[in-house]
Amino acid sequence: MNNQKEYVLGVDIGGTNTVFGLVNRNGHVKEEITITTDAQKGAEQLFSRITDRIHSVLNNGITTSSIKAVGMGAPNANYFKNTIENAPNLGWKFVDVKKIFGQYLAKPLFITNDANASALGEMHFGAAKGMKNVIVITLGTGLGSGIIVDGDLVYGHDGFAGELGHVCVIPNGRQCKCGLNGCLETYVSASGLKRTVHELLAKNIGESILRHNSIEDLEAVHIAEAAEKGDAIAQEAFEFTGKMLGISLASFIAFSRPQAIILFGGLARAGQLLFEPTIRHMNNHVLPLFRDKIDVIPSGLHNGNSAVLGAAALAWHGLERS
Amino acid sequence: MNNQKEYVLGVDIGGTNTVFGLVNRNGHVKEEITITTDAQKGAEQLFSRITDRIHSVLNNGITTSSIKAVGMGAPNANYFKNTIENAPNLGWKFVDVKKIFGQYLAKPLFITNDANASALGEMHFGAAKGMKNVIVITLGTGLGSGIIVDGDLVYGHDGFAGELGHVCVIPNGRQCKCGLNGCLETYVSASGLKRTVHELLAKNIGESILRHNSIEDLEAVHIAEAAEKGDAIAQEAFEFTGKMLGISLASFIAFSRPQAIILFGGLARAGQLLFEPTIRHMNNHVLPLFRDKIDVIPSGLHNGNSAVLGAAALAWHGLERS
Fold first, then answer.
1. Are B160 and A289 in contact (CB < 8 Å)?
2. Taking the CB of the first residue and of the last residue of chain B, which one, N or C, has fewer CB atoms within 10 A?
3. pLDDT of A4 higher than 80
4. Does the distance separating the beta carbons of A285 and B147 come in below 8 Å?
């Protein structure tokens, strides 16, 4: 039986904002609070502000002892070591999260990166409920991923497995900020889609609504709107994005044969514009043994709580496994 | 404590021959017997011959009760269902292995494909001893793989995960017998190497020892010998093969971040001809986070017992997990 009076604290640390809240075993979010991260003031100051706010919302219904664990999603967070190391968006070189956070709230603590937390969020509360083998792809400015095999996240030897944004899809292809070329995220992400549009605008001479945007001003949502209005360049850009993603998903299926693949994040909201070509190319490029057997589905955490639910799922998952 | 008087029966079913033997927990092979598979006579006849031979070698030292389990590596074997289904090399449509084999030897039975069995063989008795995250690539006529994550094989949703021979390395590339194009095994395997040589012979006009072989007569070992003698075409073929493999390994690392990758099988015996370009291209194409951190090593099961040791490891592994 789930005890609905038991909660975990889910914390999602982003470059700009940090969101956190108390979440029970059924995924009910009791409190959700957003504060600025102010990363330059350091991790300890942030952790102090988070726990101050949490203590201030505790009342007769929920006490400190109602909080069973803390789950945290953060860039470059290491599940094995409970550290955040060399996180470029935060400017933090090394943070011993367990030690520092524990000074403010002494509970079992589990941390991982945000894409891994999202994958557990989908498995516990979202579109992957009841599944034991699933891949979650997060499509934002970049491409993140969380891979679940046999009911647990794939962390690999050092805790940093599941970096599917950096598999090579086109040898010697587009330059990636990771230092490599041809990475999946240079094609399949909001920024990849923009690069594709500008490549197509350079290659073709046809009219397009999108000719009037600089690469800086162009947003994925504009491209989706243009495609919906029948703009050929925008439509071709989604076709190409879906092809790159579909071919890659086919390879991921050969690797871990998930029951389903879940697309999460801003770009996934483009709906059929992205899903239709992705699924078509995936099935054209997957081993016949797997053809038409793997579902590609949108996130089941599309409300605003998804980041907190992911972090909370990590905590509940950790408690169950420990 | 390992009881050295306890054994498992390891069975490797191949298209031509079937090899089996009794193996104790330390990987000591007590008996190893090779018989013809004669697949056209059916699975039951084969299983009967295997168990007859095993019963005939039991003596005062080893009795039926010394045999704790059976592990079997076979094409298209399904770990979850204990079946062999649609195995092209055997011509078997559907074999309920647990049921039929159990009539002859009633012991716990574990089956999987030969590449998965090899991976467990490496983990229990070979080059991956003590490792919990490892990828084993078998390089024969084709390319097989067994992926170990957190100490266990990745079977996926239906038992058929780990088909890395069929990830796409060159979209619209070489035709593969699976029906797809550009699969890794069309480039990286004994047959892929031969195709590369003939492509290079067609492209270049330089002299080469290999011009005198038809694609049918050419063997990987001839190409390796030619490369050792300084034949430029043969050397370029290994360079290209290593590049395709290295780029692919870089993607596999992004997926599951193994501690090591093990190359097993005939082509892996080409040694530095294959390993040097593979490792170089892998490190040039892997996320900087993982660069120079993943070992690529040859199989530790290079004696003749490797197939039986793999199947036996599956049985010991299964007993420990159950």
1. yes
2. N
3. no
4. no
Q: Please tell me whether residues B285 and B159 are part of one structural domain.
A: yes
Residue at A2 is within a domain: no
User: Residues B53-103: pLDDT tens digits?
Assistant: 999 988 767 889 999 999 999 999 999 999 999 888 899 999 999 999 999
Burial category of A171 from C-beta neighbours within 10 Å (exposed 0-12, middle 13-18, buried 19 and up): middle
- Residue-number span of the structural domain to which A89 is assigned: 7-122+304-321
* Interface contact A164-B254, CB threshold 8 A: yes
Residues of A whose CB is below 8 A from B286: 180
Question: Does the pLDDT of residue B2 top 80, yes or no?
Answer: no
Q: What is the CATH classification number for the domain harbouring A294?
A: 3.30.420.40
What average pLDDT does the segment A41-60 reach? 92
User: What is the per-residue pLDDT across A258-282, written as a single tens digit (0 to 9) for each?
Assistant: 999 999 998 999 999 999 999 999 9
B-chain CB neighbours of A171 within 8 Å are 247, 285
- Contact assignment for A255 to B259 by CB distance below 8 Å: no
pLDDT digits (tens, 9 = 90+) for B199-218: 999 999 989 999 988 878 88
**E strands within chain B?**
7-13, 17-24, 29-36, 67-73, 77-78, 83-87, 92-96, 109-112, 134-139, 143-149, 152-153, 260-264, 295-298
Does the beta-carbon distance from A255 to B167 stay under 8 Å?
Answer: yes
